[in-house]
Amino acid sequence: MIKFLPLLLLILYGLAMYRFSVWRTSKELDRNSTELADATLISLTQKMADALDVPRIRVHIYEIAPVNGLAASDGRIFITRGFYDRYRAGQVTAAEIASVIAHELGHVALGHSRKRMIDFSGQNAIRIALATVLNRILPGIGALAAGALTTLLAARLSREDEYEADAYAAALLHRSGIGTAPQKALLDKLAHLTGSNGRSGPAAWLMSHPETADRIAAIETLEQRWRIG
């Protein structure tokens, strides 16, 4: 038992750091967000609420410029001011914003926040343990190699979560009558909206999100199953 104590302490340290990060993010969201009051978007979120058999879906606007949507660890759904401004400017449709909300609902429903807490702690422990071992073999660069390996692991796990959230969103949009066309259209627009080329710099396997073409193909595979079924 004693020989596993350092590993246990690393995991507990990772959990504590994750909890602190969640607390800090929650406070930031509390200070800089307001509940969405757009009638058109609310009508679409109500369709999704009806499909889920819940009274309503609350969405908040997070007052930052980048184009993004996010699900907080407490289950709250946010779209950024930058995203909302693109919608108001006519660059994004209401149904496309609804697809983002559905995607973030998927992260909540599938428990990805809790999963990330476990992943974060485990990855932190793996990184430090690998660094300890690799530093003996590769003095001076072992820590860098360990960091690179755990980054690859984290990226892969994140991409799996994104595929799952996409699938949840597609099913919800289909069931609520909004359809998956806006979801696919928005994915096509994301590179332009975020100012990237769809890869955000590094090779696809280093990305936290899958490539756009792969995400759209996965949604179309679901559509084909629904047609056959």
From TrEMBL:
<dbReference type="InterPro" id="IPR051156">
    <property type="entry name" value="Mito/Outer_Membr_Metalloprot"/>
</dbReference>
<keyword id="KW-0862">Zinc</keyword>
<feature type="domain" description="Peptidase M48">
    <location>
        <begin position="37"/>
        <end position="222"/>
    </location>
</feature>
<dbReference type="GO" id="GO:0051603">
    <property type="term" value="P:proteolysis involved in protein catabolic process"/>
</dbReference>
<protein>
    <submittedName>
        <fullName>Peptidase M48</fullName>
    </submittedName>
</protein>
<dbReference type="GO" id="GO:0004222">
    <property type="term" value="F:metalloendopeptidase activity"/>
</dbReference>
<dbReference type="GO" id="GO:0046872">
    <property type="term" value="F:metal ion binding"/>
</dbReference>
<keyword id="KW-0378">Hydrolase</keyword>
<keyword id="KW-0645">Protease</keyword>
<keyword id="KW-0479">Metal-binding</keyword>
<dbReference type="GO" id="GO:0016020">
    <property type="term" value="C:membrane"/>
</dbReference>
<keyword id="KW-0482">Metalloprotease</keyword>
<dbReference type="InterPro" id="IPR001915">
    <property type="entry name" value="Peptidase_M48"/>
</dbReference>
<dbReference type="Pfam" id="PF01435">
    <property type="entry name" value="Peptidase_M48"/>
</dbReference>
<comment type="similarity">
    <text>Belongs to the peptidase M48 family.</text>
</comment>
